[in-house]
Model the fold of this input.
Amino acid sequence: MRRSGSGIIVLSAGAIIFFGCFLKSLSGPLPEAKVSEVDEPAVTRDRIKEEFLHAWNSYKRYAWGHDALKPLSETHLDWYDESLLMTPVDAFDTMKIMGLEEEAEEAKDLIFSRLSFDKDMKVQHFEVSIRILGGLISSYQLDGDNRFLDLAVDLADRMLPVFDSPTGMPYRFVNLKTGKTSGRITNPAEIGTYMLEYGTLSKLTGKDIYYEKAKRATVGLYERKSDLGLVGSLIDVNTGIWIIKDSHVGGGIDSYYEYLLKSWLLFEDQDFKNMWENSIRAVNSHVADESTGDLWYGHVNMNSGRRTSTVFGALYAFFPGLLALGGDLERAARLEDSCHKMWTLHGIEPEIINYRKMRVIYGPYQLRPEIIESAYYLYHYTSDEKYRMMGSVYFNSLVKYCRVDSGYAALGDVRTKKKIDGMESYFLAETMKYFYLLFSPPGEFNLEKAIFNTEAHPMFKTW
Ligand code: DMJ
Done:
């Protein structure tokens, strides 16, 4: 063990623990992964900012004006026929939060000179809403330039036809020019993840239609929950009939629960409080699972509550943060410990594991943010340095396994660590932002005044 000049103890395993104010962390389970180094928070935060810049500069060099960077082939990717500037729109508020004013100006110039939604293009409402609409709204709130709001309103107006189904639950796709909709079979996340964006737009413009349409969609889904209070995985928005009755908190359902709580907190709308409280009670009663002393959330049938599988994964790892935001710190802390075990199984987090067998079911790591987001919320509410130590583990693995000369690359499989040619825009919107906030001085970013959308775009309550 060696002691550094800045009050740091270096453990033989390579991990370093701060002492003094960090002693509290010793009471909780320590991260198990070997960490090359854990610095003081301000130093780590600077490293995070540098790595953000490494990714952004690579985007600038190889993918400027396109949706996303392909970091291995050093080229770009567009989701549709024409770019919607996913990466710059997603990254802009992170730059503002990190104080990267020069980069923010460059992104802003690009957005205002090139971004237009007058395109004969069929887009996925959910992804465009959480990334672009959410990004534009928070950019407007952080920067104050009205052109962000004008773009957001134009986009929302073009996408509104999705809500015109017999049930009020939205179709999955919409053509931005013609308003033609398609995709009647959809999932809870793609039905109930619109209140923060559309609701905030109503508050900012005084036009109630956005709030009303998004709320009707969420209520339409909530009213179709089972007698146990659970939702399934796939539903037909024309008939309201469930197609797949598998219930869980992972991808496809995740942000439906997230937006119930956050809509209550942002808009103080009592209906969302009731929906959240009833839903979380049902999820904790039926979906939560104990396995060898650890808490997990697996899969059950929405009607019978019968356990259908014991899988969990990277997308599910937002749930500790949500539990913490909802005031349930005990479950939040236990679940984050479980998530940490999932991360350290192979030194970086796989997409899906079987938590009974602690075995990988599906191996990619797609640069996802959820476990870091949860560490951020838990640190915010507990001040327990354990969560920063976990964050250091995640950051060091990310740099070790995913950093390449031209950005950051996802992994095809965490067991082989083989890289694949993708850097999703949420890496700059969420992953790097939550890292940065986790290591920021408490109170510098006022979480009490902001609610993050599911893409980590903060919505500020100005009403
Ligand atoms: C993001 O686009 C959002 O967080 C979404 O809710 C889930 N998937 C990705 C990040 O993993």
